[in-house]
Amino acid sequence: MSNIALLLGPVLFQGFEVPERIGFGGRQRMAVHDLPGGARVIDALGRDDTPILFGGVLSGPDASLRAHEIDLLRAQGAPLPLTWDSFFYTVVIADFQASYTRANWIPYRIVCTVLRDEAEALVQTGLTLLMQSTADLGSAASLLGGSVDLSGATTALAVPGATTLGTGAYSATQSALAGTQSAVSGAIATAEGTLGPIAAGGFAGGDAAGGIAALGGATGAAGQLATLSAAQGYLGRTATNLANASP
User: Quick one: pLDDT band at residue 125, thresholds 50, 70, 90?
Assistant: First the structure.
């Protein structure tokens, strides 16, 4: 899975941090009624998702800061977007375990409780592909607040045939969306770049006051990354839905 982008809230996992596998799934909650004569009636009560769990190794010069960041997210208990490939969930970090080996090598394990399967939620509402894509772009735009221009993608999507495989409008929409995803990825990389200097300036040399200040700065940067990552999740779902469009 090393070539798959994995995002948990503001945290982008890369290299050794990306797990070899991610466990997901669940069961159907049921009320089973055994009747006389061996007959059975089963009432389906709805999905019951198992926790999503994965692990890897936080690495690089900011590994310690990233471990602090994830642990802070665990302590806050706030809902976070979790996306990889075509999967998109809203989760809460139920358990985070890290084993400090050295400053740039920290094995970790994360367990996430699923609040909502975002893709499934949209399917259940019966929205069309165009409505799904429009809603997702609108959600991304509201999160980004103009920091990344989505007008190219939204304009392309409004052209007739934009969601019909094989049309010129479809190809233009895919191209515009890819450009928007690239712009958001660049913004994520820029935001992540601010965390390194914060860590170097505050956590070095055992400076407690500097460490506290650095953690505060990192929290602000983490908030920006959370917004960008959530927007990227909506854009990724739109791209996946368009890729599965019908002629």
Answer: very low
Question: Would you state the torsion angle of the CA atoms of residues 128, 132, 138, 142, taken in this order, to the nearest 10 degrees?
Answer: 150
Spatial contact of 2 and 15, defined as CB atoms under 8 Å apart: yes
- What pTM did the predictor assign? 0.53
Q: What is the mean pLDDT of the chain?
A: 83
60: left (phi over 0), alpha (psi -120 to 50) or beta: left
* Residue recorded with tokens 């596998």: 21
Residue type present at position 195: L
Alpha-carbon distance values, 12 to 5, 25, 114, 240 (Å)? 7, 23, 19, 19
Return the structure tokens found at 126: 């019966």
- 208: pLDDT strictly greater than 60: no
Q: Which CATH class is domain 1-125?
A: mainly beta
Which residues touch 154 (CB under 8 Å, ≥6 apart)? 134, 137, 141
Query: CB–CB of 152/192 below 8 Å?
Result: no
Q: Are 54 and 20 in contact (CB under 8 A)?
A: no
- Residues 229, 5 contacting (CB under 8 angstroms): no
Angle 208-243/63-76 helices, nearest 10 degrees? 80
Token readout for 160 is 């007739």
Instruction: Give tens-digit pLDDT for 20-65.
Output: 889 888 999 888 888 888 888 888 888 889 999 999 999 888 889 8
Encode pLDDT of 160-184 as tens digits. Answer: 888 888 899 999 999 999 999 999 9
Domain with CATH 2.40.30.200 in the chain: 1-125
Q: What pLDDT is attached to residue 16?
A: 81
**β-pairing, 26-34 with 40-49?**
antiparallel
